[in-house]
Amino acid sequence: MRVPPGVRHAAPPRPSAPARALAPIRGEFARQLMRIAVPITLQNLVFSSKSIVDAVMLGSQDPLDVAAVGIATKASFVVTIFLIGLSTGAAQIGAQVWGTASSSRGPRLQQTVWLAWAATAVFATVAFVAFFFFPEAVMSTGTAAPDVVERGAEFLRITSFTYLLFAYTSAVAVGLRVMHQPSISMVYALIGVALNVAANAVLIFGLFGAPALGVAGAAYGTLISAVVETALLALHLRVAGHLLARFPREVLRRIARTDVVLLLRLSLPAALNSTLWALGVFVFYALVSGVGVDAATAMAVLSPVDSFALAFAIGLANAVAVLVGGTLGGSRMEEAYRQARALIAVGLAVGVLTCLVALALRSPVMALFPTLSPDAVDLTTTLYVLMSIGFVLKSVGMVMVMGVLRAGGEARFCLLLDVFVQWVLLIPLALLLRIGFGVDPVYLYALMLVEEAVRITIAARRIRSRRWLRNLVGAEPATSPVEPAASSVEPVETR
């Protein structure tokens, strides 16, 4: 239909501000985000459930068994967090390598994953030696009860072999994640947990004619599931002819000293960061729990809910690190900055949704603990609300720090940031208010919100500075050149 002279076409409506902000992550990017975030979230939920399985199954046995496995699990958790932190550096490098879309990205990713495996194996071996040969000394740091030390030492000695297996699975999981294939490792992690539950039931209670081993049964169940999970993952990669099924000698020969230095420069601060964070959470929870029996009960109720809810934010943050890292690896700096801003908004939305769901489930969760005293119920309910609000801040903070900043190789900055907000601000202030002023546990717990607000404020300034917009792998742009707004950012040459 012809338009009469002098009549102008109506201009299309301008997109709303939220629509413009989310434009950089629409379409295929959003689908990739879901393909990475969902499997990682499920893996985190699985990881959180493993210790719960042991505790629940041993709950009907001797109380000393529960105490022994509880302390042993805390020691294992510190080691596992450190090993996961070590693989973080490989994730940052691997994401940028894969984002280059160059013909050499396959061999370079193989080099990165092999280096991560080697580095993690070194520290896993140290943990194996400590837990296998000196488990009593490890247990003695958590209790002085001889029976608890003896039973926990048996658990640690048997499960110490799992760290050697974890070195392989964690390194390969990083490679699969940056290749946008985390569902492969997720499937075998789920199989591992299912097998762990079955083996625990058989070996703890002596089903189907098996001996009832108690704590040792829980340990053997954990070891058996880890062996099967690792073997199935390796077999899957080999049968599928996957890039990460083997590491050719000619590829490994081309590993340069600068590659090793870069990996350690990113991995060691991240590992230390993760360990100090886990220790800080433990110390803060201990400070709040130490106020009294009701406070200790409330923290025990909230802890598993907190772990499960945060799995969603952690999954999103890891996906952000992979996707933004890939954009940085292609030297598309302005695009990476726009993606980061949009993904922070997604983090806010995920946090709000998690908060609302948690609040909606407050009554059903509290109904699971009918034996709590009225005072404990009142305190737990109040802290539950504060915890739910905290999910909003934690989700945003994790996307900023674990996702955006680490994608640009800001491992040292992230370490210093977490040390400041946790060990310089939160814990000393909580210690002062509890011991010096005898403050109510509600106000102590509320300090967690202050900690997260400070972390977000500092991280936001760093993101706006654009200093994190760095190419760590020194590759040429994969598609478009760097846009003028980020042209002052220099890539870090590693070769």
Strand content: under 5%
Helix count, DSSP H or I runs of 4 or more residues: 17
Q: State the domain count.
A: 2
Residue runs with pLDDT of under 50 for 5 or more positions: 476-495
Over the alpha carbons, how many angstroms does the gyration radius reach? 24 Å
Encode the helix/strand succession as letters: HHHHHHHHHHHHHHHHH
Supply the helix-strand structural class: mainly alpha
Number of E-state strands: 0
Largest sheet: none
N- to C-terminal distance: 61 Å
Principal-axes shape call = globular
Give your account of this protein's structure:
There is one protein chain. The chain has 495 residues and is mainly alpha-helical. The protein folds into two domains: 39-255, no CATH class; 268-495, no CATH class. The protein contains 17 helices and no strands. The chain starts with 16 loop residues before the first helix and ends in a 30-residue tail after the last helix. Residues 476-495 have low confidence and may be disordered.
Topology:
Elements: H1 17-22, H2 28-58, H3 63-99, H4 105-133, H5 135-140, H6 146-159, H7 162-178, H8 182-205, H9 215-239, H10 249-252, H11 257-289, H12 293-329, H13 333-360, H14 362-367, H15 374-407, H16 411-436, H17 441-465
